[in-house]
Specification:
Blueprint lengths: L45 E2 L5 H8 L5 H10 E4 L3 E5 L5 E4 L1 H4 L13 H4 L1 E2 L7 E2 L5 E9 L1 H9 L4 H19 L9 E7 L4 E10 L2 E6 L2 H4 L3 H4 L11 E7 L2 E2 L7 E2 L9 E6 L10 H33 L2 H24 L2 H20 L9 H21 L10 H17 L1 H7 L11 H19 L4 H7 L4 H11 L5 H9 L10 H42 L12 E6 L4 E2 L2 E2 L3 E3 H10 L17 H4 L2 E6 L11 E3 L4 E9 L17 E5 H10 L4 H8 L2
Parallel strand pairs: 13-21
Antiparallel strand pairs: 1-15, 2-3, 2-7, 3-4, 4-11, 5-10, 6-10, 7-9, 8-9, 10-11, 11-12, 14-15, 14-20, 16-17, 18-19, 19-22, 20-21, 21-22
Helix pairs in contact: 5-6, 6-19, 9-10, 9-12, 9-15, 12-19, 13-14, 13-19, 15-16, 15-17, 16-19
Length: 698
């Protein structure tokens, strides 16, 4: 199940991501140093700004014209702000993943219904249910704005000024295009490519009347649960269908991918059209070493601890929203674990090092300015400084998504106390904002606080003043229980008194407040320094991206930015676990897996699936290709050269997880639901004849 990662949990607010930065460390020489590496390691996420027609012709002896790319772009959709989708009929039918529909489809659930358990199928148009707040975006306009943005930044002075100049240019351009013919009424978005090497303005037509048509049960959409996540062979019916309405009627569109349930052939070229969320393949080796040593392990620990806390809570509560949050955590844990394994793989890191040397040599040979050639060194130097800030900015961060509500509130009180001491009049005006928090869930509050204290102990050490004050000889769990038991920060009268006498905040013995007075100033100092360095890094990364484009041009695609891309691959097996992966799995494998686990929870089948017709068993269910995908590609259509939908991307295998920083297609595989499998399930199990006819004809 492809989803975005939770890296932003490490640092709250505008500093999120400030530490996706390098630390300079030397690779241990191994035989892997002979790994080739090269521009191809940056992947195949091609933009529609520069369609790769010549590359497709050379690689597949297939020459799509401008109309082919235009029709492909107009049939593709962005599903809300987290997934991909596509039109698959002339009547506004939209295809995406089940795990994308879980974010919205269950919102139409009525009293007495459990759509996760039963699924949903609208037998008639009138039964299709509108999902409030759901929208899909169709990319209809593209404009290159690189020159204007880079000129504006070039005229600015400091790094902060350059970034402000960029944002002003973005705003000015959008205001100008709002009234241009062909752009009026569109959702305008500025898109950054190559970390600032190129910029585009995209105009989206937004459809807001989106109705649920079909969604299988959770047990089929997420068959195998987290155990089977990022694995293959796979047996998940991870699909859902919605419909776009216009003026109360199904949208009429000539831009859609016609369903082809007949199958895919091994070696056949396949194209994925969707919105990959984020890759960081242009990162320098120094930056990746930082991720390997500090950033990624810290993120992984944080996710594991929060998931554990929610699972403990949900054993008795059984709350669907909590369950979905656990799914997201567990999905990210598995994904980031795979990324960390890739970062620790000397072969992959050697490939990155070799490409970096090639890139530097090519930039030098192209006679790029000498100051630009210092970019790699400047990035590494900044990273050395950032490493010294990492612990305080990470383990002392008052983020209510990771440490609970009370410690961030204590930090807010510390800020208020400082304001009262320095500017009493401003503090008096802000007094009304200082209100005692209402703890939403005490069990989770305590578990998150305990997890935070354990992470601070591991990251900062037992001799750190913050850790000493927090634990005071107790375990993190004992300390968290004590702090919550003795705190007065939930007492409105106590908070009112503190706010009235702001200066007392600086001397109060309240335990969480005393702890915040130690940790929060350290966090602020580290975070402010990190912010300044991060601005420098952002400008330097943009410079690196401009160099990449100057050397390789559009022959190398930019990193993913949750913008529409097309990528190419072939239907192909791979070797794993001492055997060979089948290109296609069948429904018979679904039943074998369920019976093999005796119907245990993750592999349990709903009642309607327990007595299948024989004809279903031989039908294809999932298949694999070498396409280059990442989180955000969930719901992307798999199409062939005829622009026919042959599948629906929903996951990658374990070997694909290092794809965030490098694309090596040897064993990297995308996993899709087979178009024929979707039709077979609708025909034999759900009796969704209306939908079958709309998708496949007879």
């Amino acid at each position: 199940m492809l989803r975005h990662s939770f890296r932003s949990l490490i640092l709250p607010g505008l500093l999120a991501g400030a530490f996706s930065l390098p630390v300079s460390a030397q690779l241990v020489p191994t035989a892997a140093d002979s790994a080739k590496g090269g521009p191809a390691d940056l992947g195949k996420m091609w933009t529609f700004d520069a369609p790769p027609a010549a590359y497709f012709q050379k690689t597949y002896n297939f020459t799509p014209d401008a109309k082919w790319f235009d029709e492909t772009r107009l049939a593709a959709l962005r599903f809300a702000d987290y997934c991909s989708a596509s039109f698959v009929s002339a009547n506004g039918l939209v295809m995406t993943n089940h795990h994308c529909a879980r974010e919205s489809g269950t919102g139409v659930q009525r009293k007495g219904e459990d759509l996760n358990k039963t699924g949903f199928y609208a037998k008639t148009l009138t039964e299709e249910r509108k999902v409030d707040g759901l929208f899909v975006d169709q990319l209809v306009q593209i404009e290159d704005i690189t020159g204007r943005v880079q000129t504006a930044m070039g005229q600015a002075g400091s790094e902060e000024d350059k970034l402000q100049a960029r944002e002003k240019a973005f705003d000015d351009i959008k205001k100008e295009y709002e009234t241009k013919t062909g752009w009026q009424g569109l959702q305008l978005q500025t898109i950054t490519f190559y970390n600032g090497g190129r910029y585009s303005l995209y105009g989206f037509k937004r459809y807001t009347d989106v109705r649920l048509v079909f969604m299988p049960e959770l047990q089929l959409g997420f068959f195998g649960g987290d155990y089977d996540n990022f694995t293959y062979p796979r047996y998940a019916l991870d699909c859902s269908f919605f419909r776009v309405y216009d003026n109360g009627k199904p949208l009429k569109t000539t831009h859609f991918f016609k369903f082809n349930p007949s199958g895919v052939r091994e070696g056949e070229p396949i194209f994925v059209v969707g919105n990959p969320g984020r890759t960081e393949r242009l990162k320098t080796v120094a930056e990746l070493e930082f991720d390997r040593d500090l950033q990624t392990p810290a993120t992984l620990d944080l996710l594991k601890n929060r998931s554990k806390a929610l699972q403990a809570y949900n054993t008795t509560v059984k709350n669907d929203s909590i369950l979905n949050e656990i799914f997201s955590y567990e999905n990210s844990i598995k994904a980031i674990s795979g990324q960390l394994a890739g970062l620790r793989d000397p072969f992959l890191m050697a490939r990155k090092a070799n490409f970096e040397k090639q890139f530097q040599a090519a930039a030098t040979a192209k006679n790029l300015p000498a100051d630009q050639l210092q970019t790699w060194k400047q990035l590494a130097d900044n990273t050395t400084k950032l490493r010294t800030l990492f612990k305080d900015a990470t383990y002392l961060a008052p983020n209510d998504r990771t440490v609970g509500q009370l410690l961030p509130f204590a930090a807010l009180l510390v800020q208020y106390g400082q304001l009262a001491a320095q500017r009493p009049q401003d503090a008096e005006r802000a007094r009304g904002l200082v209100v005692a928090p209402v703890i939403k869930n005490r069990q989770i509050e305590e578990a998150y606080l305990a997890a935070h204290l354990a992470e601070a102990q591991a990251g900062l050490g037992n001799d750190d003043p913050y850790v000493k004050a927090a634990l005071n000889g107790k375990t993190p769990a004992e300390a968290a229980a004590y702090l919550l038991k003795t705190t007065k920060l939930t007492d409105p009268e106590f908070i009112k008194d503190l706010a009235t006498r702001g200066g007392s905040i600086n001397s109060s013995s309240e335990p969480l407040l005393a702890l915040a007075r130690i940790g929060f100033p350290r966090y602020i100092q580290a975070a402010q320094q990190a912010q300044a360095l991060s601005q420098q890094q952002e400008v330097l990364r943009g410079q690196l991206g401009r160099m990449l484009y100057a050397v390789y041009g559009a022959a190398v695609p930019p990193d993913a930015t949750f913008s529409l891309r097309i990528n190419d691959g072939v239907v192909k097996s791979y070797d794993y676990n001492g055997t060979k992966a089948p290109v296609v799995t069948t429904f018979s494998g679904l039943y074998d897996r369920s019976y093999s686990f005796a119907g245990q929870a993750a592999w349990q089948l709903p009642d309607r699936w327990k007595t299948p017709p024989t004809a279903l068993l031989k039908e294809p269910m999932c298949f694999i290709t070498t396409n280059d995908i990442i989180g955000g590609n969930s719901g992307s259509p798999m199409i062939n050269k005829n622009r026919e939908a042959v599948g629906l991307v929903f996951d990658g295998n374990i070997e694909s997880l290092p794809g965030e920083f490098i694309f090596v297609p040897d064993a990297n595989r995308s996993i899709s639901v087979h178009a024929g499998g979707m039709i077979a399930a609708m025909r034999y199990i759900y009796k969704a004849d209306r939908l079958v006819t709309e998708l496949a004809g007879k």
